[in-house]
Amino acid sequence: MLVAALFALAGSADALIFASPDTEPATETPPDFPYWEHVTQRRYDGPTVIYLGNGHALTARHVGMGEIFLEGEIFEPERGSNRTILNASGTAADAMVFALEDGHPLPDWPVVPIATQPPREGEDVLLVGFGRERERVDEFEDEAGPRFSFRWTRKGAKRWATNRITSAFDVLAQGNLTSRAFVLRFDEPYSPHSTRYEAQAAVGDSGGGVFVRRDGVWQLLGLMVSVSGIRNAPQSGAVYGDQTYAIDLSHYRPEILRWTRAACSNEIDDDGDERIDFPDDPGCDGPNDRNERDATAFADPSLWIAGAASLAILLVGGFAAARLRRTPASVGD
């Protein structure tokens, strides 16, 4: 499905809106979720940014790079390190990565795994982002009759919620940005499609993470970038049936790893020895090693002997060739 233009309510995603206190999580962090601290925000109450590990961050392109918070410290972006994630056609998607300056020691956190398989319709997901919350309920009229809107607060906070994938494949067009995306719908409580902590993104969640748990392992599946709703709804609120659009990061995974992982953590056999990354590849000193080749390969005496013999053959051959080239000239004297 091609989303050429969003509805009147459409805009950057910035917060998580719940229908009522009964549908809000009772805990600050999701249970058994190891990447809560990785989801942070830009300085000055900015939108959401995900720290991927290895000194790199991911966010929406319309958010842009900037200073972020990690363990209470402010980390500045490395100038010139921002990379827009591209489609196969060379056009820009609404996602970007950037490196952090190493002025402070970076947190020793695990690398966030990006999903290798695409989203699946009906799959439950976890949303984490910074943004506005529900302030009150407003009533309005549309073609179907009375409706309710959940008005946003002016300031946001870090929250987590759940939702279910409504559409696993969309093409989201936003100005000069075109992105492979999937869709989450905001359903009423007790609806057969609703999840336990159902929520809708709002102004402030752009760059927030959509995580999925597969085979017991949490993976980063999407990046919240936009929302859409009905035409007559209040501009600063969420309505049942609104949609959250998330970039399908499994689709852009190779491009993201290209810019954010060193050779010893990029999940590629760079040196062709059929061993991949640290600690499996003996050429890797650690996950940040930029070369998988084994520096001790010539420690084997047999390799040194073979190398020396090859060099001797080249030198002797070169000497003989030089004499042959000089011989005709001496005969002519």
In a nutshell, what does this entry contain?
This protein has 333 residues and is mainly beta.
How would you describe this structure to a colleague?
Residues 1-15 and 303-333 have low confidence and may be disordered. This protein folds into two domains: 2-257, Thrombin, subunit H (Beta Barrel); 300-331. The chain is elongated. The chain is built from two helices and 18 strands. The protein is mainly β and 333 residues long. A hairpin with a 2-residue loop joins strand 15 (209-214) and strand 16. The protein has a six-stranded antiparallel barrel with strand order 11-12-13-18-16-15.
Describe the SSE topology.
Elements: E1 2-3, E2 11-12, E3 15-18, E4 39-41, E5 48-53, E6 56-59, E7 68-70, E8 73-75, E9 83-86, E10 92-99, E11 124-142, E12 145-174, E13 177-185, E14 199-202, E15 209-214, E16 217-228, E17 237-238, E18 243-248, H1 253-260, H2 301-331
Parallel strand pairs: 1-12
Antiparallel strand pairs: 2-16, 3-14, 4-5, 5-6, 6-10, 7-8, 9-10, 11-12, 11-15, 12-13, 12-17, 13-18, 15-16, 16-18
What separation lies between the terminal Cα atoms?
A: 85 Å
Q: Per CATH, which architecture of the largest domain?
A: Beta Barrel
How does the helix and strand content classify structurally?
Answer: mainly beta
Number of spatially distinct domains: 2
> How much helix, percentage-wise, in residues?
10-25%
- What would CATH call the class of the largest domain? Mainly Beta
What is the string of helix and strand elements? Answer: EEEEEEEEEEEEEEEEEEHH
Count of helical regions: 2
> What is the CA-based Rg, rounded?
27 Å
Low-confidence stretches: 1-15, 303-333
Mean pLDDT value: 80
